[in-house]
Amino acid sequence: MKRMKIGRLGAAVLVGMLLVGAVGTVGAAYSDTVNDGTGDVMHWHFSKNAWGWSYNNERPNIDITQIKMSDSGGIITLTMKVKGTIIDSERMITYMFFIVDDKGTATIDDDSTYVINYVNGESVLMGGDEEEYYMLDLSENASHSGDTLTTHFSLSAIGNPGQLKFSEDSAGFTTDHPEAGEEGIGEYYSDVVPDEDVVTPDEEKEEKYSVPGEKGKTPGFEAVFAVAGLLAVAYLLRRR
């Protein structure tokens, strides 16, 4: 497992993004589990002239059912289960964990936050706080079989924090970017656990807006984490 440090500017940018939704759940020092329902994948689509999204889609290979964290002798093991099958793909299917050390305080100002990203056989951990920031290559530690992705890292590799738990607003996140069709049009599917916004039957399944968009619902915090994920993906692609 390789360990690298990045500059304060890069740390500040990434910490700023990761602090969104970084309030942790209550749990043991290094043990946490979050379950999630199925059929709740969102579909985002956009072009030069319009953008929109739909709710409650079937995309089993990124539809999270459970994420889990456990500790054994200072080694933190993370697992993610999906409804379908964990797959490797060059079209950028990503699986992500978000964990936090809230240091026993009510404020998020002193939190250490981490994102662990897996895409197409490569994995990286990025995170920390303004004082210490880490980037770890976890590719050799990551594997998957059937519906389960597993990865692990050493507590000593991130400064032996006093506790770790999943972020309350976004413990896990997945994206699937289908290959673009017509030039200028893009789309992706995503799932976040736990679900922050539950769409009820009386709400519209499809939201569409022109550019510049109408005022109303916005993609929300998921887009922030997508950006963080893309930064991790960019790092992985540079290694290849």
The secondary structure category is mainly beta
Order of helices and strands: EHEEEEEEEEEEEEEEEH
Annotation, overall tally of beta strands: 16
- Tally the helices: 2
Instruction: Tell me the Rg in angstroms.
Output: 18 Å
What do the pLDDT scores average to? 75
Description:
The protein is mainly β. It is built from two helices and 16 strands. The chain has helices at 8-18, 221-239, and strands spanning 2-4, 32-35, 41-46, 50-57, 64-72, 75-82, 93-101, 112-119, 122-128, 133-137, 143-145, 148-154, 165-166, 172-176, 186-193, 206-210. The strands form two sheets. Strands 1, 3, 4, 7, 8, 9, 10, 13, 14, 15 and 16 form an eleven-stranded antiparallel beta sheet that branches. Strands 2-5-6-12-11 form a five-stranded antiparallel beta sheet, with no helix packed on it. A hairpin with a 2-residue loop joins strand 11 (143-145) and strand 12 (148-154). The longest helix has 19 residues, at 221-239. The protein starts with a strand and ends with a helix. Residues 2-27, 198-205, 211-225 and 235-240 have low confidence and may be disordered.
Structure summary:
The chain is mostly beta strands and 240 residues long.
Topology:
Blueprint: E1 2-4, H1 8-18, E2 32-35, E3 41-46, E4 50-57, E5 64-72, E6 75-82, E7 93-101, E8 112-119, E9 122-128, E10 133-137, E11 143-145, E12 148-154, E13 165-166, E14 172-176, E15 186-193, E16 206-210, H2 221-239
Antiparallel strand pairs: 1-10, 2-5, 3-4, 3-15, 4-16, 5-6, 6-12, 7-8, 7-13, 7-14, 8-9, 9-10, 11-12, 14-15
